[in-house]
Amino acid sequence: MFTAPNVTELTDVRIITRASKDWYADGSDFKYLKVLPPMNIQIDPEPTTVNSEDNVTATVQVEDSLGVPISDATVTISSDVGGSFSAEQAATDSNGTVEFIFTAPQVTSAEGTNATLTVKATKGGYADSEASIIVPVKPKILTTQVFLPTDTTYSEARMNITVNFSYNNDPIPDATIILTSELDNFTSSATTDADGDATLEFVAPRVNDSTNLTITVTADKAGYFRSPCQVSITVNPRTFRITIVSPSVTAGEPVDVKVQAECVEDESKVGDAAVLFSLSSGATMTGTTNADGTCYFTLTSRQTSTQALNVTADVTKDGYTPGRQVLPVPISQPEAGFPLLTVMLIIIPIVIVIVVAVLIKMKVIVVSAKEET
Fold first, then answer.
1. How many CB atoms lie within 10 A of CB 243?
2. 38 to 14, 33, 89, 91, 233: CA distances (angstroms)
3. DSSP letter string, 249-282
4. 180-236 confidence digits (pLDDT tens)
5. If you write DSSP's letter for every residue of 98-127 in order, what string do you get?
6. How many CB atoms lie within 10 A of CB 237?
7. Could you give the C-alpha distances from 225 to 97, 165, 219, 343, in angstroms and in order?
8. Is 66 helix (H, G, I), strand (E, B) or coil?
9. Is residue 1 pLDDT above 80, yes or no?
10. What DSSP string runs through 120-157?
11. Closest CA relative to residue 322, chosen from 257, 259, 260, 273
12. Helix, strand or coil for residue 270?
């Protein structure tokens, strides 16, 4: 194997071969081999790392082995991952340099990609030369800002959440925004306006205990990496305002008692709430509030036949903290004297006797006696 010498100019090298053997005359031959000087290539990208679809200026320097610039060398450049160049071929200037502007390909994966830029240089009297360099290409990651009107809300409450998306401080219009929450698979979507803003409605899940909820906001825009942004919000159960309404109660008389359930947070009437109505005597009744948040219970005359009475309403519903209201019910006692029943038992026989006597006197009723024989 023949290794050519390192030359700085075109050089003819004579290669001589000789052969000898006993009983033979020596023989020789030679050939001339043209040895071309090499070209050294240096590639300097600026910047050294580029974002998706952004530009890199690749400066190529071509020199001989002594570091002397080589002008008018034909230089071609290519990329193994696509993208585009301002020109794919150009000639070096008097300083042996040439510049190419490389536009990186669109990259949307989180890890990005590596673009290998390959440069080839040719010129008569020089050996062809090749060099390459790797330029990392990163995805465009949007800057996300989420504005919550409050960081605390309550079961099934509605609120408007404003988001803003930008890249390098420039607003991103026409991006599709998706909002999700972790508990109830809630999803809401909107599109950013010219200022990169969008407003989405969020409905809190129904909870029975104070719950920390994570809300995820993601932007979808061609050419940009989908980078989710998360914010936290506390969701509390709703609370009841319970009112027990009772008219005047007289001992021994039946009466209807009204239970009213309202939501403290938004003052709405609470329908379909379960009501456990209990008396201090130990009796209990159950009911369900109607669309107006009301439920009625009837106390019998037996239940009101007491000197004092306390009633309790326990109200429950999914998404609410259980509520309780206790009301002492004043009971009016009848005036002193004989009880009504006793009075009637006395009066009724007397009235019957009087009526019979009158009928006999008027001979409507005839009383006769028959003698025995």
1. 15
2. 19, 15, 20, 17, 67
3. EETT--EEEEEEEEETTT--B--S-EEEEEETTS
4. 988 778 899 999 999 999 999 999 999 999 999 999 999 888 888 887 899 999 999
5. EEEEEEPPP--STT-EEEEEEEEEE-TTS-
6. 19
7. 36, 12, 9, 93
8. coil
9. no
10. EEE-TTS--EEEEEEEEEEPEE-EEEEE-S-SEEETT-
11. 273
12. coil
* 309: number of Cβ within 10 Å: 20
Could you tell me if 153 and 236 are in contact, meaning their C-beta atoms sit under 8 angstroms apart?
yes
Q: 3-state DSSP call for residue 367?
A: coil
Higher pLDDT, 329 or 84: 84
Question: How far apart are alpha carbons 213 and 183 in whole angstroms?
Answer: 7
Judge whether 244 and 312 are in contact, CB under 8 Å.
no
Q: Are 191 and 174 in contact (CB under 8 A)?
A: yes
Whole-prediction pTM: 0.65
Per-residue pLDDT, 127: 83
CA distance 7 to 65: 8
Q: How confident is the model at residue 284 (pLDDT cuts 50, 70, 90)?
A: very high
Residue 10's pLDDT band (boundaries 50, 70, 90)?
low
Assess whether pLDDT exceeds 90 at residue 314: yes
Peptide bond between residue 47 and the one before it cis (omega within 30 degrees of 0): yes
Exposed, middle or buried, 127 (CB in 10 Å: 0-12/13-18/19+)?
middle
Q: Which domains does the chain have, with CATH numbers?
A: 40-139 (2.60.40.10), 143-236 (2.60.40.10), 240-332 (2.60.40.10)
CB 119 within 8 A of CB 105: no
Instruction: State the Cα–Cα distance between residues 183 and 201, nearest whole angstrom.
Output: 16
Tens digit of pLDDT for each residue in 13-36? 666 677 787 787 777 776 766 656
d(CA 284, CA 316): 15
Tokens at 124, concatenated: 């008569």
Token pair, residue 247, equals: 């008219």
Residue 59: pLDDT above 90? yes
